[in-house]
Each structure stands twice: as structure tokens, then as C-alpha cells.
Amino acid sequence: MAKQHVSFNLNGKQVDALVEPRELLVHTIRETLSLTGTHIGCESSHCGACTVDLDGKSVKSCTVLSMQADGSELKTVEGLADAEGLHAVQQAFIQEHGLQCGFCTPGMLIRAYRFLQENPNPTEEEIRWGMSGNLCRCTGYQNIVKAVQTAAQTLQQA
Amino acid sequence: MEQTAEVQDREDSLKGVGCSRKRKEDARFVQGTGRYTDDFKFPGMLFADMVRSPYAHARIKSINKEKALALPGVHAVLTADDLKPLNLHWMPTLAGDVQAVLADEKVHFQYQEVAVVIADDRYIAADAIELVEVEYEELEVLVDAHRAMDSDAPVLREDLVGKMDGAHSKRVHDNHIFNWQAGDKEATDRVFEQAEVTVKQDMYYPRVHPCPMETCGCVASFDKINEHLTVHITSQAPHVVRTVVSMLSGIPESKIRIISPDIGGGFGNKVGIYPGYVVSIVASIVLGVPVKWVEDRMENISTTAFARDYHMTGEIAADKEGRIKALRVNVLADHGAFDACADPSKFPAGLMHICTGSYDVPVAHLNVDGVYTNKAPGGVAYRCSFRVTEAVYVIERTMDVLAQKLGIDKAELRRRNFVKVEQFPYKTCLGWELDSGDYHTALEKVLNAVDYDALRKEQQEKRAQGELMGIGLCTFTEIVGAGPSRNCDILGVGMFDSAEIRVHPTGSVMARMGTITQGQGHQTTYAQIIASELGISSDEISIEEGDTDTAPYGLGTYGSRSTPVGGAATAVAARKIRAKAQKIAAHLLEVSENDLEWEVDRFKVKGVPGQEKTMKEVAWAAYNNVPEGMEPGLEAVDYYDPPNFTYPFGIYLCVLDIDKRTGETTVRRFYALDDCGTRINPMIIEGQIHGGLTEGFAVAMGQEMPFDEQGNLLGNTLMDYFVPTFVETPHWETDYTVTPSPHHPLGAKGVAESPHVGSIPCFTSAIVDAFAHLDVTHMDMPHSAWRVWQKVHELGLDTPA
């Protein structure tokens, strides 16, 4: 199959890639662009390990075609930290022990990053619903909820 | 006073045992720089994908590879016939059976591996498996384990026909794997015949799957020039993998390097050796390039390592006051098509004979029969220690049934039967020695914390109003830390574990262990153990695991064995270093070794203030100024063979409400008290308990792998297989008592599996309790809304009065 040219802004940098028309965004990110922080857990949109931020929305990159991302603004977990250091959600996950094996963590973080822009001052119930597209098998979620609350406070004070 | 505060400050700065130290692992994981198996990419790497059987039982009439081989980018298609010349079409299992690597003439379960395609990338491989044409002749399917040993049952394992000497016992039927018994049958039967009260309960522990976030996979890289094999693999036991690969391939272990990199959760799923690993290795050896295989979620749930599937009957004989006189447990174990249970070799039913629980049981008998069915092989310890989950379930359920029959409150019944604190160490009638415990204290703590009497009163009121409220209780004892090599081995290798610690000249430390973390935080907690033993800050201690070229040989991480065995090895290795350091310190201070005392991070001359050497000073001296005759350097290795298992315990209480219209359950409260002995990192312990409770909740409330009559698996995606989200997961309350293990160097017992083991019967106890006033004694899992509603409906509770 002839490859197609796509171009998008990934973590603040303009990138170009040649992709198969049927290629999934998660594979382009992981295989072609070598950013392996975005993980594959189910390939069916259930687990959220592959969550990325696409034009200001959390999407599961295992069920998005790379061609659909042409011209978009993309952010992955690798784009959360900046020259100042870790993002508030990253710090909060460490602080509150919101991760164990770390496999779901990039998806959780990128979702939390967007969720706290959608709802900067959420209740626990709003966090639980707002994050419910991301599965975790290790933590039982309780400390992730705490981490999102902590990050919300930090971001509000900033 | 001032000096004490100064000593305390020094101790705190070590961040040693007891400190809720933040995890060392997290910095890389939150930045997406963890390295999991699928993240490894090597030049020329090819991808493997499996052709799988649509049928549960069928003869393979032909396999046509031509169309697949003609697809550009396909390098090879391998079947059992291709593996035969290498004698790799079958492989030994950990349970003394053999398993087909690729189906040999017959398929024995749906999704069984029939052929493997090797291609340039995963897209081409996926296309090519569709082009492999396999012609099947369907055979009669055996799904129901209860039918396995009927005279007219279809024979599954033609390779075993006539071989009636099984790995563990005589086989009495072609579909029989083993019979295994523990205890005194005659004495138990006698007690039952004369008992004042007996109860008997059948129960089914459904087939479930550990379902970690990361599926299984590997990258095999064979270097043809040097005849050296490197395998990056999702394994909870990399050293065992090296030994098995060497035995299968004939490559010396010195030329095999197994690397378990970051692992995205294991929970028992990543203990076994799977066909995907074997064919990737074979393909890499044949093609001379790296080959990657990563299963997708459906393959994961369908084929790699189910757990449980125990049909159990629990019976208790007691007096009228509820004092247990005897226990009888009978099990029909569905092992699927190949016996690939991951248990210590001598125990085909794992540690099921811990089924006397926390109770003083005078005599007991356990009988287990394992049978073949047309289902995937496995039988792994899903977040538990080798069938202890099943053992705890059968005893806890049967205790509840006894309480109900006698009209004694279930907490009171347990009080009357607990092993008393003064009875420890307590020898159980089935052969274990419970090392320590204080069940009564822990139970009272929980009952007080939740105000048990008030809950019972509220329940009475709710019942009067026709509402369904349940209170569940589980008072369990685990058996973890396998194990003493006198009775525990895997493929003949004793189940010790190891630690190697090197103190560098400037006093920082590198340590390596034979275990492998999969989220438990070993890089954090092992360093804390060393910090407390050596007086060096844990921030200056690096921990490495998972690379068989560098780490000492160990049996890996499962069955809560890291802290009980690996942690003990770490403490003992550190003590060897401190003993040598003491000699060096004595030399430096020109005193006798016996004149020195240890204080946090230094040796002090007794009674002479100021005469002291810190561990860091000693470390430097170890490389330039040691006593005459002593070899330089400061390092030690320990291979720790534990004298006994450890026996963590817990008291769990669950309060839930059931909606009669929908059958939906709301867990109002779940209170978990755990006693894991000495607590190394309370933050990590709590995190492990939250996770274990959530996995227990999943098993009890929704997980199952149902099969239809043709052996089709009806739930192998995350749409069907229940993995709780943020929304369903209850809020957890945790508590603890500390009863140190008397034989573990630190007194630690292991913790991460207790919450899974203990919570599952607690949920069932609570669900059944909601219906107990209506003479319901047991309900099988999963307690999904649909199944609970069926009970509501059967009892006529959903129709207005």
C-alpha cells in the first residue's frame, strides 16, 4: 500500500511521517516516531493506556488512523514536562503513590492533564467519572483520585 | 536528649525500614521513559503472529501456507511439522505434563496456536495469518469438568492414552491428570460419622484471568556469529526462563541472556512459558534476526494462564457450640487441555492444604482430582500463593454456612475457633506450621472500628423494611514466601532467592536480586532494607533486577515471595557486609571487634565517645586499608533458603446494599485489616492493598470466562471481561496490626496478595448475608447484577407484596 504523508505538531514540534492509510496513530507514535511512552493495552478503546491529547481532546490512539491526525496538535506523555520540570499531574502521581507498574500511567496522566482543563475544580465523583475511560489493574484507583485532587490544587494555586 | 535527637535524625535520613519513602521507579514512568518489552526495537526485527484454532476440539486435516508465504514481507510460516525435527513441537510444563507449542495433529482448545507467521511488521503478519488455510475435522468437545471422567467422555489427550502413571499419581481415566490427598481420611470420616453437627456446601470458583495491563510478549535475538541468544521478555521469573530455554534448545545457559525489563503488571499471568516465546526464539535462531511477539488482549485472556476453575465441596463437623471437630474438602480441578499449572513441583494442587484457615482444626482430609477439558491450559496463582485463594474461599464459605446452621454470629463462631495467640507456632493437621499470628486482637479491632453491633442492628431494621443489606466477614490466613527447598522446587530448582550487594569505595551501593518487580516497587523497598542494615541512605542505593547476565539466580516474583525470600536474602547479605565492616572498623580504631557497637550508620567503641567509624569511612578503607589477611572489597551474596513459609493474615469486613429491582450491589464500606509482620514501606503496602482489594472485587463481582457447549469462550475482550473502572471500584479503608514473623530476618511476611485472597470470600459472605434471613447459604460468583437479580427473583423479592 502506498504510504501517505502526514504532518502534525507533536509535543510542540512539527513532525512529518509517511504512514500507511490503515496505520493506527499509536503505531506511528511508537514505531515511526519512537515515542514509546504511549502504550497499547487492548487495541479496542477500552483500557486507555494509549490515550493522547489530540486537538484538545483525550483520544485513544489505538483506534485513530494516523491520517486523521494530519494537521493536528498532538500531545503525549513525553510532552508533559517542560524546562521547568515535571508537570503538576506528574508530580502529584509520584506524591500520592498513584502508580505501580506504570503501564497505564502515561494514559492516566495525559487524561488527567486534559480533564483538569475541562474541570479545574472537580469533586471526587467527577474525577471518577472523568477518568473512567482509563483502566488500572494495580492501584485500585484510590491514590490516582488523590493525585488528581492534588494536581488540581497545585494548578489552581499556580 | 540532644544526642538522641541527633541519632534519630541520622536514622530518619537513611529512609530505611518503616519509611513511606516515595518510589524510585516513578520518575521514569511518569515521563513515559519506562522500557517495557514492546518498547524494544532492533535492526532487522521481524514480527510473529499466531494462526489460532476456531474450534475447541478438532483434528487438523491440512495446513496450506502457500498464500501466506506468497504475501510480500512474509518470511516464514511455521507449524508443528516444522518444529518436529528440532523436537520443539511439544514442550514440558512446570506441572510435569507436556504442552503442544503448535498444535500437533489435533487442537485441544479454542484459540490454540496452530501456526506462526513471521513477517516484516505486525500489519503484514496480521494479513498473513488470514491467508493460512487450515482444514479441521471437528471432534466431540468436553467442556464440563464433571463429565470428564465419564465412561463415554471423549478422550482429549491421545498422546497420553495408555500412560496411566501420571506425574503425581496413577491416572484412573484418560482425562484424569492426578489425584492428590492430604490429611487423614479415615480419622476425618470417623469424626463426621459421630459429629453433633455437620454442614456441607458445594461451590464453584470460576475460571478467571489475571489480565494485567500489559499483555505477554518477547523479543528474541539470536546472534548467529557468537551463538548467543538474548530474550527481552515479560517474565516474572527470568532465571527460570533461562534454564528452561537452555534445556529446550541445548544452548548453554552461559550463552543465553534473559532480560525482564519493566513489566506492566504480572499477577501470575507472566510466570509460565508460552508457545509465543518458544516460536519467537526458534524463528530468531532459524532466521538469524530478532523476532518480536506480543499478544493482543483477546489472545491474552483466551490463552495465556487462566486461574482457579475449582469445583469445591467444603464440609465441617462441629459440636453444638460450633467448635470445629473435622474438616473435609473435595475438589474437582479443571486444568484445561494441558496441565500447565505453575505450582511447586511436589504440589499439584498448590498449597490448597492450607484450607484449615485460621482455625484450630483437629483433623482434616483434602482430596483433589485434576482433569483435562477442552479449555486453555494454565491454573496460575492470580495474585496469590498457589491455590491459597481457593483454600481460603472454601474454608471461609463453609464457616459461614456453619454459623448460619447453628444460629451463631459468624464473628463469634470465628472467635471460638481461631488458633489462639499462645498456640503459635501452630502445626496444622494438614502439615503446615503457622509461624505467628494474633487473630483475636485483629478481629476485635475491626469489629470495634466498624461498630459491628450497630451494623447488625441496622441490618435487622432494613430487613424488617424488606431491604437487602449484607455484612461480610473474612478472617483469613495466607501462606506465602515459597519456599523451603525441602518441599518447594520448580523443575528441580529449589525455591530459594538471592541478593548480591556491592558497597562502592565512596559508600554508595549497587544491589541485584533474583526477583523481579512488576509494580511492587522493589527498587524502593529493597534499598530501604539495605539502608537500615548498613546505615547508608536508601537514596544512595541502586537496585537492579531482571537481567540474568548480572543478577544472581533467583526464582522470581510471584506468590508474595519477594519480601519473605528475596527480602530475607537482602537482609542477610547486608549483614554479611556489616560483619566484615565491623572487622575493618576494629582494625581502623585499633580495638577488638567485640569492643564495637553499631549505631544507625557507624561503629562506636563502647564507652569511648568520639571513637567511631561511619560505614562510609569503612567502605573507603575496605578498598585500601583492610586488616592483614583479609581480602579487600565490601560485597556479599546470599542465597536464602527460608526455613518456613510466612503466614500473613487479615480480617476483612464488607457492608453492602442490594437494589432489589436491578440486582445491583453498592459496597458501602470495606474495612481491611492486614498483618504482614514488619512493615517496610507503609505507603507501598497501602497501595498494594488497594490494588489487591480491587482485583478481589473484580473476581467476586464480575470476572468469569464462560464457555458454551462447543467450547467457545464467550468473554475474552475488555468489553465482556470485567475489569472495574474508577466508577465501580469501592472506597477502601485499611488498618493493620504487626505480628512479626519469628523466622524472617526482618520479621516481614509479604502483603500484596492478601487483599485479593481475603476480599473475595468477604464479598461472597456479604452478598449471601443479604439473603441469609431467607435461608440462602451460598451463592456462586460472580455476583453480577444479573446473577444477584436472578436470586432476588427466585425468592420473589422483586414483586410488590
Q: If you had to describe this structure to a student in words, what would you say it looks like?
A:
The complex is a heterodimer of chains A (158) and B (801). Chain A is of the alpha+beta class and 158 residues long. Chain A folds into two domains: 4-79, Roll (Ubiquitin-like (UB roll)); 88-157, DNA polymerase, domain 1 (Orthogonal Bundle), CATH 1.10.150.120. Chain A is built from five helices and five strands, in the order ββαβββαααα. In chain A, strand 3 (51-54) and strand 4 form a beta hairpin. Chain B is of the alpha+beta class and 801 residues long. Chain B has three domains: 2-34 and 497-640, Aldehyde oxidase/xanthine dehydrogenase, molybdopterin binding domain (Aldehyde Oxidoreductase, domain 4, 2-Layer Sandwich); 37-139 and 215-263 and 271-303, Aldehyde Oxidoreductase, domain 3 (Alpha-Beta Complex), CATH 3.90.1170; 388-480 and 645-794, Aldehyde oxidase/xanthine dehydrogenase, molybdopterin binding domain (Aldehyde Oxidoreductase, domain 4, 2-Layer Sandwich). In chain B, 28% of the residues lie in helices and 24% in strands. Chain B has 19 helices and 32 strands. Chain B is globular, with a radius of gyration of 28 Å. The chains are: A alpha+beta (158), B alpha+beta (801). Chains A and B meet through helix 1, helix 2, helix 3, helix 4 and helix 5 of A and helix 2 and helix 17 of B.
Nutshell version of this structure?
Chain A has 158 residues and is an alpha+beta fold. Chain A is built from 5 helices and 5 strands, in the order ββαβββαααα.
Overview features:
heterodimer; A: alpha+beta; Ubiquitin-like (UB roll); DNA polymerase, domain 1; 2 domains; five-stranded mixed beta sheet; 5 helices; 34% helix; B: 801 residues; alpha+beta; Aldehyde Oxidoreductase, domain 3; Aldehyde Oxidoreductase, domain 4; 3 domains; seven-stranded mixed beta sheet; 19 helices; 28% helix; globular
